[in-house]
Write a structure and sequence with these properties.
11-stranded mixed beta sheet; 6 helices; about 25% strand; binds hypoxanthine
Length: about 250
């Protein structure tokens, strides 16, 4: 089954015909919200809002292990994720949607593995290509089918948050090769890989990253997020098309 994980600006899916909500307990605790099961275009999907249904869970406090474990326990084999980011590269302007092909993890103190030698033995997964190429292709095909100009590459820097970055930090991320910055890309992608779940993310660009473009001197984050609605409608259209194709 396909799961959709929604981030900032996508706490529910309007086009989901909900059939049931399920509280799932996992060895790692409870996920961000009860899993929402339903149908899109006649197909079964499950939806999970990463920050909870009322967007109350900060990026560093999300129980990523419980989220991924709960989906796995329910038989999820593919996760199509949405994570809002700031654009570092000039190509990634607010309102565009990008699908990264790589990640750099700058987070700390998060429970980032199932294989910590406590619940499961130590194991080192391959993560050379962090996103599932087949699922990326499906996102791409969905974008082509509905004429959405999805930018199909990018390097996602995951920062700890919840504060936004300094301009110098963004300069450093850019020197490292990052083209976009968000707070939730990791450990979500790695945990999915650990459990053998296909995972790929699309990233609506909410703002220019700190020190860039219209964010030269400051970022009015709440305003920026309020303005995400139009982009999120395009994200919803992409999701419907992805599900139809699945
Ligand atoms: N930085 C980090 N995370 C974000 C940003 C940003 O500029 N915009 C949206 N999520």
């Amino acid at each position: 089954m396909l799961a959709i994980i929604g981030g900032t600006g996508l706490t529910q899916l309007d086009n989901l015909e909900i059939t049931r909500r399920l509280i799932v307990r996992t060895p790692y605790g409870e996920p961000s919200q009860p899993l929402v099961f339903g149908k899109i275009a006649g197909r079964d999907v499950v939806f999970l809002a990463r920050h909870g249904s009322g967007h109350t869970i900060a990026p560093h406090k999300v129980n990523y292990r419980a989220n991924i474990s709960a989906l796995h326990l329910q038989g999820v084999t593919e996760i199509a994720a949405v994570a809002t980011v700031g654009g570092i590269h000039a190509e990634l302007t607010p309102g565009s949607i990008a699908m990264p092909h790589q990640i750099i993890d700058y987070t700390h103190g998060r429970n980032a593995t199932f294989f910590d030698g406590v619940d499961l033995p130590v194991k080192h997964i391959d993560f050379t290509e962090p996103y599932c190429p087949k699922l990326r292709k499906k996102w791409q095909q969905a974008a082509i089918a509905i004429g959405e100009p999805l930018i199909d590459h990018g390097v996602y820097a995951t920062t700890q948050g919840p504060r936004l970055e300094t301009a110098a930090e963004i300069d450093r991320l850019e020197r490292d090769g990052a083209t976009m910055v968000g707070m939730t890309g990791m450990p979500e992608a790695a945990l999915a890989r650990e459990l053998g779940i296909s995972y790929a993310v699309i990233c609506p660009i909410a703002n220019h990253a700190a020190g860039r473009g219209s964010s030269l001197h400051s970022i009015q984050y709440e305003e920026v997020v309020d303005n995400l609605n139009l982009t999120m409608q395009r994200v919803r259209n992409l999701i419907v098309q992805l599900v139809k194709q699945a």
